[in-house]
């Protein structure tokens, strides 16, 4: 397993080095090395290009989408993502009109790419946005979109000629908040920067989630529902015995709590005291997590998904910096590991109590 992870790291490093070298070479032909600001007439058709299939990256795009909708309420916002699963999380957000999906498999990609490009160009977008500072896929998508104006970050390796460019905000480390600084390059009016993630859930998704959760739990749970996701990629994942000890600690500290483990469909429970719940429908999964009273996970897509639903979240970080990837939400907290399972249980339960007190004051 360690050998497999090491090979994957080498492949990622090689791909990153090739991408950086190619970008620097292309930047010699046509580059946008310095910021260029100019107020735009209020755009009515906007395309946001985030050609990536990772769940966390999709959720971390939502602060920008919400900020765009608040800053340009008359605009129709389309989003270009990769894969056919993540788009369901964005399509019901305020201001979002449609989510276009780039296939991940080679044959559907070749078969559908030309029709997709034609469709994008027929939309006659006023503005295309690349929210990332190093994505060649995003830049290619903007280049072929046919948008009248193109907005992104200025950089020495920014090989796409942009009409509007912002300086990369080195003072803002968080990946989900950096794109918000793009908006100042296109408007002279105050920018509405929304710094929390969100997902657009329907009543139908919530109803299905409620039914699935009740079917999994059997009898109605009287106490709080505490959710957790024990998986993560590479060095971000905590060992199984840590999670088992954490489950034991929660049951000792909150005997009335019901533990719900979010798993891949059909996956087993990590501990006998936990009820496994899983679905491949991300909208339904978000609606399931929304019913939790608290949620804990390592740095992963479900961690960000939980924060986007408004659930109190405790994020565990051991291989990635929390200042870049912490869950964004008023009820969220990120800690670095190692941390004792009992201490993590106390933190999450305390976070839940703080939330209950806040809701009582507001109510």
UniProtKB/TrEMBL annotation:
<dbReference type="Pfam" id="PF01075">
    <property type="entry name" value="Glyco_transf_9"/>
</dbReference>
<dbReference type="InterPro" id="IPR002201">
    <property type="entry name" value="Glyco_trans_9"/>
</dbReference>
<keyword id="KW-0808">Transferase</keyword>
<dbReference type="InterPro" id="IPR051199">
    <property type="entry name" value="LPS_LOS_Heptosyltrfase"/>
</dbReference>
<keyword id="KW-0328">Glycosyltransferase</keyword>
<protein>
    <submittedName>
        <fullName>Glycosyltransferase family 9 protein</fullName>
    </submittedName>
</protein>
């Amino acid at each position: 397993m360690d050998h497999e992870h090491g090979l994957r790291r080498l492949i990622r490093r090689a791909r990153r080095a090739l991408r950086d070298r190619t970008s620097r070479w292309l930047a010699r032909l046509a580059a946008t090395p310095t910021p260029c600001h100019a107020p735009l007439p209020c755009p009515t058709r906007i395309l946001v290009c985030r050609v990536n299939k990772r769940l966390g990256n999709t959720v971390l795009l939502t602060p920008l989408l919400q900020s765009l909708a608040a800053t340009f309420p008359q605009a129709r916002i389309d989003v270009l993502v990769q894969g056919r699963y993540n788009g369901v999380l964005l399509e019901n957000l305020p201001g979002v009109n449609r989510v276009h999906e780039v296939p991940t498999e080679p044959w559907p990609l070749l078969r559908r790419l030309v029709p997709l490009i034609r469709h994008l160009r027929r939309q006659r977008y006023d503005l295309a946005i690349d929210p990332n500072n190093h994505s060649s896929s995003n830049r290619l998508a903007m280049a072929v979109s046919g948008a009248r104006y193109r907005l992104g970050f200025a950089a020495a390796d920014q090989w796409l000629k942009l009409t509007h460019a912002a300086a990369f905000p080195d003072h803002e480390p968080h990946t989900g908040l950096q794109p918000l600084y793009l908006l100042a390059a296109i408007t002279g009016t105050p920018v509405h920067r929304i710094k929390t993630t969100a997902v657009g859930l329907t009543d139908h998704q919530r109803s299905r989630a409620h039914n699935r959760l009740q079917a999994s739990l059997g009898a109605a749970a009287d106490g709080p529902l505490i959710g957790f996701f024990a998986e993560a990629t590479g060095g971000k994942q905590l060992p199984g015995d840590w999670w088992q000890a954490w489950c034991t600690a929660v049951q000792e500290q909150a005997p009335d709590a019901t533990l719900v483990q979010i798993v891949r469909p059909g996956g087993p429970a990590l501990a006998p005291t936990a009820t496994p719940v899983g679905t491949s429908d991300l909208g339904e999964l978000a609606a399931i997590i929304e019913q939790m009273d608290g949620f804990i996970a390592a740095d992963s897509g479900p961690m960000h998904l939980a924060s986007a639903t408004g659930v109190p979240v405790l994020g565990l970080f051991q291989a990635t910096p929390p200042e870049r990837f912490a869950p964004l939400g008023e009820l969220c907290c990120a800690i670095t590991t190692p941390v004792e399972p009992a201490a993590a249980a106390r933190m999450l339960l305390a976070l839940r109590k703080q939330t209950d007190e806040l809701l009582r004051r507001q109510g």
